[in-house]
Design brief:
five-stranded mixed sheet; alpha/beta; 133 residues; Rossmann fold; two-stranded antiparallel sheet
């Protein structure tokens, strides 16, 4: 019989409750505590829900390799969706092809305000507030 492994989100939540002021994420000069990261994740998950993204669907993540990608992954998973990571350095045609083939209807991207949720195929770019600090 296969042993069921704990979901990493449960480990994150447990750690955030146990040591909320410990550093959870270090990105260059920028640091987030578990409390700050959990707050940003929760806010993003709520905003994704307000944007009427159905649970159980795939959300594209076109994010760099910084702290916003961690918030994006955690927020999408907290809302109950899967995610398709896209490297913003790849050609746009390749990214669109991957999104189309996977049937992704929502795309989380970086914006000057933090994160933006775009509804495909229109790519309307409605900002999603996931403030940190």
């Amino acid at each position: 019989m296969r042993q069921r492994l704990p979901w990493p989100a449960a480990d994150f939540d447990r750690r955030a409750r146990r040591t909320p002021d410990a550093v959870a994420l270090h990105d260059g000069e920028f640091m987030l505590t578990y409390r700050e990261l959990a707050t940003a994740r929760d806010r993003l998950a709520v905003e994704i829900g307000r944007s009427r993204v159905p649970r159980g669907t795939l959300v594209g993540l076109r994010l760099g390799h910084g702290w916003l990608s961690v918030v994006g992954i955690l927020g999408v998973r907290k809302h109950g969706c899967g995610y398709l990571p896209l490297d913003p350095r790849h050609p746009a045609a390749r990214q669109h092809r991957l999104l189309r083939r996977a049937g992704v209807r929502h795309l989380l991207t970086e914006s000057p305000d933090g994160l933006a949720l775009e509804h495909l195929p229109t790519l309307s770019g409605r900002p999603v507030r996931a403030p940190v600090r």
